[in-house]
Amino acid sequence: MAKLLGELVAVRVLQVGWEVSEVVPVPMASNRRRERGYNHAKVIAENLATRVGKPCVDRLFVKKPLRHQIGLGQKQRKENVQGAFGVKDCAGVNGKSLLLLDDVMTTGATLSECAKTLIGEGASRIYAACVALEEVRRS
């Protein structure tokens, strides 16, 4: 599925004409990656990157424990990811236009925080793409 999903996102990215230097997957906490065995956003991002002819680079890492976002409201999600990400190679993002890729976007809190982190370390422009949108349920 990752190949198909990456290709579908790539078609849209190519249609809108975003000029990017790299594709950057949203990182997954190391304990969750060990549980699952892989970062699904990274696998999709690798396929997307191949299709658009750009490298897929793990620029971000999770630097603090995160609660699962499932079941959290918009405010809680934003608070959960605030300050959660770091950049592995700050010089490597300087002046670059990057495409962030996540599998599912609910409120945009994770993508926003990742973008804020990359811009804070010198990226010139951030584009964001996701495979699916999930509606926030109001309780």
Question: How is the main sheet built?
Answer: 3 strands, parallel
Q: Helicity range of the residues?
A: 40-55%
Q: What is the CATH first-level class name? A: Alpha Beta
Tell me the radius of gyration.
Answer: 14 Å
The CATH topology, please? Rossmann fold
Q: What is the general shape? A: globular
Strand content: 15-25%
Structural class: alpha/beta
User: How widely separated are the two ends?
Assistant: 32 Å
Order of helices and strands: HEHHEHEHEHE
**Lateral arrangement of strands in the main beta sheet:** 1-4-5
Could you characterize the architecture of this molecule?
The chain has 139 residues and is of the alpha/beta class. The protein has a single domain, classed as Rossmann fold. It is built from six helices and five strands; from the N terminus they run αβααβαβαβαβ. It has helices at residues 2-16, 30-36, 40-52, 74-81, 90-93, 109-120; strands at 22-25, 60-62, 85-87, 97-105, 125-133. The strands form two sheets. A three-stranded parallel beta sheet has the order 1-4-5, with helices on both faces. Helix 6 (109-120) links the parallel strand 4 (97-105) and strand 5. It is globular. It starts with a helix and ends in a 6-residue tail after the last strand.
Write a compact overview of the structure shown.
With about 140 residues, the chain is an alpha/beta fold. Helix content is about 40%, strand content about 20%. Strand 4, helix 6 (about 110-120) and strand 5 (about 125-135) form a beta-alpha-beta unit.
